[in-house]
Specification:
The chain is an alpha/beta fold. The protein has two domains: 42 residues, no CATH class; 203 residues, D-Ala-D-Ala carboxypeptidase C, peptidase S13 (D-tyrosyl-trna(Tyr) Deacylase, Chain: A, 3-Layer(bba) Sandwich), CATH 3.50.80.20. Helix content is 33%, strand content 16%. Strands 12-9-5-3-13 form a five-stranded mixed beta sheet. A three-stranded parallel beta sheet has the order 4-8-11, with helices on one face. Strands 7-6-10 form a three-stranded parallel beta sheet. Helix 3 runs antiparallel to helix 8. The longest helix has 31 residues.
């Protein structure tokens, strides 16, 4: 201990304690350094570990980096619209003056050519015809073709004529004509089955004729606005309450040329006469058209066609005859053109 000049004693720490604190600091630093060296050695000497490959395939960008699909819609949509317009313009220019084109994207009109001009709706009008049929017909409505005589058969003989009374069924079909269908099976009413039914009753002889009765509708066979080829090119059958094989002249037994008949009612009677002859039923008179007398109410056979089957043909095959021949359940109702 030393005495200061002002006489107050000054206490100084012993020199040994200061040296002891410095030793602890040096020892801690050495231990930390040794720990770092140990960790480094462990990392450097650790064997390599393989990483398992991922199960999923490598990600590949489906859209090129510079694709227009990566451009915001407000920029790409006008570009797409212009490209579509350029593609459609020459197509629209090649259409007839009675045609129009309109292309919409949602509510936006993308392309239009003569879209404001009044034009003939063509087969689109069949949609309205179908809607009218659905409105007028009951779901269970049937288009009935009746086969009647004025007297019951006696010992297998029908005295007089056999009348085929048309009910507006445009789908009466024979096997020979069915073979000409190029697009598979279509809705039809099997006329062969009716001939089989008549033969099964034991009828073997008809002293008169097979008479086709189309009096349910008028005698208008075409529509004035139709092009001439509609009938001759077999795009439609002639219009009649009684039509067999779309009015084709093809022989229902042996086949042959498929040409359009100018008298579908007589042709229907002729076709049924041939079917009866093929089943051994003798018919003395020549087939013809006529009207069943009021007393000819004895039905010996009939064939039924659900009205909605005719509607199916109209909708799927765009059938002209099934659209033009009104299928009304009211007897002898004149068709309005």
């Amino acid at each position: 201990m030393t005495a200061p000049t002002d006489g107050a004693p000054v206490i100084r720490p012993p020199h040994g304690r200061r040296r002891r604190s410095r030793r602890w600091y040096i020892a801690g630093s050495a231990l930390a350094l040794i720990g770092l060296v140990v960790v480094a050695v462990a990392v450097l000497t650790e064997p390599d570990t393989e990483v398992a490959a991922a199960d999923h395939p490598a990600l590949v960008a489906a859209t090129p980096v510079l694709s227009a699909r990566r451009v915001p819609e407000f920029t790409s949509r006008p570009v797409a619209s212009r490209a579509l317009t350029q593609a459609l313009t020459p197509i629209a220019a090649g259409l007839s003056g009675t045609s129009c084109v309109e292309v919409r994207d949602g509510g936006a009109n993308v392309f239009a050519s003569r879209d404001a001009d009044p034009v003939v709706p063509a087969s689109n009008l069949k949609v309205l015809s179908a809607a009218a049929m659905l409105e007028l017909f009951d779901h269970d409505a049937r288009l009935t073709t009746s086969f009647v005589t004025t007297a019951a058969p006696v010992n297998g003989t029908v005295s007089g004529d056999l009348y085929v009374v048309g009910g507006g069924d445009p789908l009466l079909t024979t096997d020979s004509y069915r073979k000409t269908f190029t697009h598979g099976a279509q809705p039809e009413t099997d006329l062969e089955a009716v001939a089989d039914q008549l033969a099964a009753t034991g009828i073997t002889h008809i002293t008169g004729s097979v008479v086709g009765d189309d009096s349910r509708y008028d005698t208008q066979r075409t529509v004035p606005s139709w092009k001439p080829g509609y009938i001759s090119d077999r795009e439609s059958s002639p219009l009649s309450a009684l039509v067999v094989d779309d009015g084709s002249t093809m022989d229902p037994v042996t086949g042959g040329p498929d040409e359009a008949s100018t008298d579908p009612t007589t042709q229907a009677a002729s076709a049924f006469t041939r079917l009866l002859a093929a089943r051994g039923i003798q018919v003395d008179g020549a087939p013809r058209a006529g009207t069943a007398p009021a007393g000819a109410a004895l039905a010996i056979a009939s064939c039924l066609r659900p009205s909605q089957s005719a509607l199916t043909t109209q909708a799927i095959d765009s059938g002209t005859a099934t659209s033009e021949i009104p299928e009304t359940p009211n007897p002898r109702k004149t068709r309005s053109a």
